[in-house]
Amino acid sequence: MTDPQPPDIDAELVDALIADQFPQWARLPVRPVELQGVDNRTFRLGDELSVRLPSAEHYREQVAKEQHWLPRLAPQLPVPIPAPVAVGRPGRGYPWTWSVNRWLPGETALAAGAARGGGDVAFAQDVAGFLRALWTADADGGPPPGTHNFQRGGPVSVYGDETQEALAELAERIDVAAARKVWEAAVTSPWTGEPIWFHGDVAPGNLLVRNGRLSAVIDFGTCGVGDPACDLVLAWTFLDGEARAAFKAAMRPVADDAMWARARGWALWKALVTYDSHVPRVMAEARRVVAAVLRGGLSQPGGVSSDRTEAVTTRGMSAASSRPARSSSAAPLSR
């Protein structure tokens, strides 16, 4: 039996769903957000609301999770997070439940270019402050790793087969020996603490900024309770220079070398499996992240760059763009 296929998730569909199920908002304009995610499609509804619809069957579990847990997490966090207002039913050919949330003002860090050009230390410290608050939130009864979040919060070794396959395919194009050391450090540094809350997708598309400071955090679709190491990947995927150093310093009281090793493994896995993405932006980002991950010590998110590593990491980029894209069930998420 195949998964149900939704119709095109566009403003026309959202407008019809709203008119059918929430007539009080039927006169409000529906506009797609500029930066769409992979797991969900998001639309602005009037000036104060947003509509968020899963894009495929394997993302549908995230709706009920966010509806239940976000109101419980919000009072424990230093910046706003999405506030569910209503839950929509299947309709008009769309097969899953969906959410109406409060609109959160701000620009994504990706669009704003925060932490670029040497890095924005204040922004990095803001993100660290948010994570430290989230990690200390009451985790009693929270969702453990599973299909709802593609095993975020569990051991990174769950993606061992994908990682080894990618390393084999990239054997002549990156420093595989260095990558294997990073991976080995990640899978041999187990989490031994109690399960705690994590976001699961701390990416620049999910971090909103105003005046250069973190103003909100969105997209909790991959959140859960477990090992929070995956929340540290921003050190390689976005932050650089002084901002990266400030982020690590701010997280030092709660993130030891073993956690940084696991985080580095999460960053490496994702970059490897998207290294030959057919989407140019994703491919370029994956290659930049691989280069960043392969620099420095095994437990450090930075360090002195190696000319050899840089050269071998980017070797064959032009030829690779014609290769079939690797896929991952846990593709990057955004607003």
Automatic annotation (TrEMBL):
SUPFAM superfamilies: Protein kinase-like (PK-like). GO terms for molecular function: transferase activity. Residues 300-335 are annotated as: Disordered. Residues 36-266 form the Aminoglycoside phosphotransferase domain. Pfam families: APH (PF01636). The keyword Transferase applies. Coiled coil: none annotated. The keyword Transferase applies. Keywords: Transferase. Residues 318-335 have a biased composition (Low complexity). PANTHER family: AMINOGLYCOSIDE PHOSPHOTRANSFERASE-RELATED-RELATED (PTHR21310), BIFUNCTIONAL AAC_APH (PTHR21310:SF42). This is Aminoglycoside phosphotransferase family protein.
